[in-house]
Amino acid sequence: MTATKGLEGIVATTSSISSIIDGVLTYRGYNIDDLAVHASFEEVIYLLWYGRFPVQSELDQLLRDLSESAAIPSELVEQMRLYPTGTNTMAALRSAVSALALYDETANEMSSEANFRKAIKLQAQLPTIVATLSRLRAGLEPIAPKSGVSIAHNFLYMLNGEEPSELAVKALNQALVLHADHELNASTFAARVTVATLSDIYSGVTSAIGALKGPLHGGANEAVMVMLEEIGSFDRVEDYVQTKLDNKEKIMGFGHRVYKGGDPRAKHLQKMSQDLSQLQGNTELYDMSVRIEEMVTGQKGLKPNVDFYSASVYTILGIQRELFTPIFAISRVSGWTAHILEQYENNRLIRPRAEYTGLTNQKYIPIQNR
Ligand code: COA
Asked: Ligand 1 within 6 A of 255 CB?
């Protein structure tokens, strides 16, 4: 038995949800480039869950279901008030989503209908949890979700307590579409491994949030912003990046396990970053990002991934960096739940093997003789 480090190139399951073929990302066969420009996030959720686009009445029903499920249990809000201030937002999100199961008496029901209902709840409640966490951290009271608006709109409303601009809703909607699913990425794999034991959907999503938190996965968007803040201004980019490259340190937001010719999502986020910063009349963050890209791509051949330009996009939208990875989760929970439902439909325990590299033929030595 020979191990493949990081399971690179290993095909671990079949799936009909999303594909990366020759550097092209599709959801259910639809090119992400098409979806990023035309689709609402809610249409994409439906597409991922049901395998086809909804007709208007089906979309309206999904919007109603999401609206009706968006409020979170008051007991959970009380728990969240007790979380230490300054705690990592993804750690808090992971705890809150795990706790959600405690307030759902159907948490362990395994029928397909029950799991679809729980997928709707999770999709509807993650934005409410993230907005609530953010407000509690700022010493503000949570704002209840409103009905009849999109997830992007509702999230920004619950975050800031005021109606968001159309532009902000449009930008966030597009970011949510772009992050919704991504074949067998680390967090989706974690979700599938967890539910393949026939554990419940909340456990699967909690595992996925834990995996997404890491800086090599979803945590990279926050790490990009930390880097931009450390650099501080355009004239400092050159020295900062060159020192990192000379020291062989990783530059967050670059590189990808699967895409070697570039992440197809990055160009949409770059354009969004450019457009928003021009509209705002301050292009410094965008200009810094472009210069970093020129240096990293020029010297290492590495291209930006989905996380690189999302950092400047969210910052221009007035979102704090602690929320960047949780926003990724708000989107990716659509993909996680689609994969969990698919796993349940055709389940087999996921239990690979390890190539043993430890000592052999050891004999027990009594403690007084060691
Ligand atoms: N900055 C600098 N060098 C990088 C790099 C980066 N962001 N990403 C990869 N490399 C280099 C590695 O140092 C390694 O060089 P070496 O062969 O000289 O040791 C080589 O490229 C291969 O990298 P490796 O980490 O083995 O690739 P991987 O497929 O295991 O990892 C990522 C993929 C995404 C984890 C990796 O590119 C990375 O850490 N990127 C930064 C984090 C990030 O943006 N994550 C979000 C992904 S969407």
From this structure: yes
**Which parts of the chain register pLDDT below 50?**
none
The CATH number of the domain holding residue 310 is 1.10.230.10
Same-domain status, 310 and 331: no
* 177 CA to centre of ligand 1 in angstroms: 25
User: For 135, how many CA atoms within 13 A lie in the half-sphere containing its CB?
Assistant: 20
Range of the domain at 140: 40-165+183-212+324-345
Domain harbouring 45, CATH code: 1.10.580.10
Q: Could you give the CA distance from residue 320 to residue 187 in angstroms, rounded to a whole number?
A: 23
**Ligand 1 centre and the CA of 302: distance in Å?**
8
Mutate to test the pocket of ligand 1, among 178, 216, 309, 331 (most ligand atoms within 8 A of CB): 216
Domain count, the chain: 2
- Residue 69: partners with Cβ closer than 8 Å, 6 or more residues away: 120, 121, 124, 125
